[in-house]
Design a protein that fits this description.
Helix content is 48%, strand content 8%. By secondary structure, it is mainly alpha-helical. It has a single domain, classed as Orthogonal Bundle (Cytochrome p450), CATH 1.10.630. It has a three-stranded mixed sheet, covered by helices on one side. The chain has a three-stranded antiparallel sheet with strand order 4-12-9.
Amino acid sequence: MQFWSESDSGSSGPWSVVITLSLAVLWYAWLYFKSSDSNSPLPPGPLPLPLVGNLLSLDPELHSYFAGLAHTYGPIYKLRLGTKLCIVVTSPSVAREVLKDHDVTFANRDVPAAGRAASYGGSDIVWTPYGPEWRMLRKVCVLKMLSNTTLDSVHELRRNQVRRTVGFFYGRVGSPVDVGEQMFLTVMNVITNMLWGRTVQDDGSGLGAEFRQVVGEMTELLAKPNVSDFYPGLARFDLQGVFKQMEGLGKRFDAIFERVIDQRLRMEREGAKEEGSKDFLTFLLRLKEEGDSKTPFTMTHLKALLMDMVVGGTDTSSNTIEFAMSEVMNKPEVLQKVQQELEAVVGKNCIVEESHIHKLPYLYAVMKETLRLHPVLPLLVPHCPSETCTVGGYTIPKGSRIFVNVWAIHRDPSSWENPLEFDPARFLDSKWDYSGSDFKYFPFGSGRRICAGIAMAERMVMHSLATLLHSFDWKLPQGEKLDLSEKFGIVLKKKIPLVAIPTPRLSDPALYE
């Protein structure tokens, strides 16, 4: 993008240079005096250019680029992206100040244009500002939809989909399969079945493969640098078309939501009862009718929560499974330990059940180590302070965009021995969990805005990993090498998909039915 241009008139050329230089001097003088207040300095950071700030130097792989800048500017530093001041946090101690000591202040979001377009104007649990409305949505998700009691009640849905996936892989024994793609469809089918009682295949419209493409495009747009976010005054022009693209993708899901909601309401009017009448949609529709008058639960909230579950629960879990499978295949000694544990707990004459997963400490360690090296949200979801405060000895202005680089913190050599090595043993008999209380390891975030779907993700990832590694041996196609490189997005993914060949391990072919 061209932010300014030379004049066509030769006579006005010198004046344009003088004006540009004057603006530059004023810009730097303003930044200097704003940052040099001895009582409240801003964090350090790279020198910004006039008007564009540090925008032109951004690298697409933001998580590793931000980690590199931390080596120069320290554990908390600033970037100016257009008119937006961004603060990057890259140490456990500073992360603790943001997410625990000043949790309420930082519990809001700096909602990007793409986020508003994808979530019915920011009406979901991810982007809604901290307050009564957000607390109501959080309560709905954590206490009703994603509680252990609720998840226990629908475990058969998860089991059926995992068994269906085993059958898919068994039918392609000896042939290369895209592991991530198939696990995405598995997770998507589990979620849609829990939401409204049907899988995407059951809808009969071939939506499965399309869903993955749409979800992938949505998460990429959420992480894409957007002029509308850096220059809010230009947002109405949507110069890069990000809002329009995201709105179009959102409408594809909205049409599906409208269809299943209309069908459910029509059946209720006719007095018909569906087999899946205990699904989440039934509960949400009832909540809409009986909700609190002070903080009403609306149809917009309902659809926004459906969007959160479909978009937020699919790529995240399937990418973690894909990374874990890749790391284990890359370490034969780790794979051997996992399969020995599975044989001891499950045996070769049985299939994995969810009741087994709490008896698999080494596999749990594999999952935790995968989330250390490849955290689902490498920069979490950006926070935004509701008032100016002091963090790490620096002033953090109200309205800043705060990135917490959990990816870099998880690879910090001062916290982790051999941090780039995949070593599940570091999580055996250890204190590390997902509570967000230790700021050396918090893959699901921390504080009030910690991920609401941890229990669901844990069950889905563990059951899937245990089943894939218990039921099959895996190898790469001849001549292929395993690549573990990452592609940045608001959701981290493998740059090169894992394509592998399954071979049956179990003693009885009937176990694959």
